[in-house]
Structure formats: C-alpha cells, structure tokens
Amino acid sequence: MYRPHRAVLGETLWRQLCSLAPELQRPSGSTLMRQGEPGTHVVALSSGATTVILTGAEGESTLLAVRGAGELFGELSVLDGQPRSASVIAVRPCRVHVIAGPAFKAFVTEHQLLDVMLRHAIARVRTAETVRLELATAPVSRRLASALCRLVETAWPDAGSVPVEIPLTQEQLGQLIGASRKAVGTVISAWRSEGWVQTSPSGGLSIQNLYAVRQQVQRAM
To answer: Which of 203, 172, 185 is nearest to 140 (CA)?
Structure first.
C-alpha cells in the first residue's frame, strides 16, 4: 500500500525537514509546482490536498493523482537535476514548506535518505502500475468507486462517514480512471438516484454515503 513521505520518514524526520523553511498558506487553485520548471526547491505539504497534472505536447491536461498532507513534491527533480515532470495544483487550502534545493540535498545526505527517497519513488511507480491494471480490466463503476475511495483515504482522511466534498469535475474524474466524461456521468447519475452522491453547479462531487460507494468496489469485481 502506498504511503506518503511523512509516514515513510517518520514524525521526527518529517518535522525536521519542514523546519528548514517557514510554513506558508496557499489558497485552493494555487500552482505549487509547474511542469517544465527547473528543480530549485521541494514542497512539503503539511495540510490540504493537491492534484498532480501532466500537460501534453498539444496542451491537453491529464490528472495523474491526488495527494494529501504528508507528501513531498519535486524531490526527484532536485536530486537528478531534471525539469519538473508534472504540475501540482492545490484543490483545498494548503499549508506548505518551500525548501531550497541545496538545503534539501544536504538534509538527505546528512540523514542518509537517498535510498529511502528512491524506494519511495519506486513505490509510486508500482502503485501507478496497479492502477493501470485496474483501468485495463475493471468496469467504470468499480474504477470510479475505487478512485473515490483512494481520494478520500489520501486527501480527506478525516472525512469519516460524513458528506465529503470532492472538488473534481466529471472530466477530471474521467482522466483519473481512464474513462470518458459520458461514462463517468452515467455512473454518477445512477449513484445520485440512490442518494449516494450529489453534484454541485461548479462540477464538483459530494459523497453522501461513503459506505455505499466503498461497497461498489467489491460488488463490481
């Protein structure tokens, strides 16, 4: 199971890492990291939620992942000197620490964390492979239910059983699970008639019955 950097490093090292830079507030919609820019710094996410967006050669955007508190962004770009491979956008108000590249590399060296960072990167790749297998074999209803459950677990861990507001459009959810907007809309329409979800005028999704959505992951298998 994928774990954020905070869980991998442990609370003590995570706090020490964050102490390298002051905490900043970033509103929803802010760009925390932009694809193609040089790796001059890393961003440690103390609270909030973000989307990871890949922009193609013709300007098309693909939602790769949603990440929550305890994540570190841009570490590989700083370590290998390559440009950012994707953009990171805040979808909830965020508290972040923007840590300069040299300070981050010195921290990694001091605490012998290079192997840890590389293993974490490999874990992300393996998680992505698992998701790709799911996209290739599972029906849209299961893929959507599984994706929503992952979103809640990683970005809204305090949601419990109360309504959860997911600020992603049906088009973005389709990008996340490899389905068309129409296919996602068909599933959401059926769930809405059951009272499990509601849609907002802005295009977001409100999960009213998280238990029922979780059950769809098993029933659709």
So the answer is: 185
Co-location of 108 and 208 in the same domain: no
Q: Is 104 helix (H, G, I), strand (E, B) or coil?
A: helix
**Domain total for the chain?**
2
Q: Could you report the per-residue pLDDT of 14-34, keeping only the tens digit for each? A: 999 999 999 999 998 899 999
Q: What is the CATH number of the domain that holds 148?
A: 1.10.10.10
Express each pLDDT in 45-99 by its tens digit: 999 989 888 888 888 777 788 888 999 999 999 999 999 999 999 988 999 999 9
pTM: 0.81
**Token output for 162:** 């109360």
Write the CATH number for 71.
2.60.120.10
Q: Do residues 185 and 107 share a domain?
A: no
Residue 214 and residue 159: Cα distance in Å, rounded?
14
CA distances from 97 to 25, 27, 44, 74, 89 (A): 9, 14, 5, 12, 15
Residues of the domain holding 181? 139-219
**Is residue 116 domain-shared with residue 143, that is, in the same domain?**
no
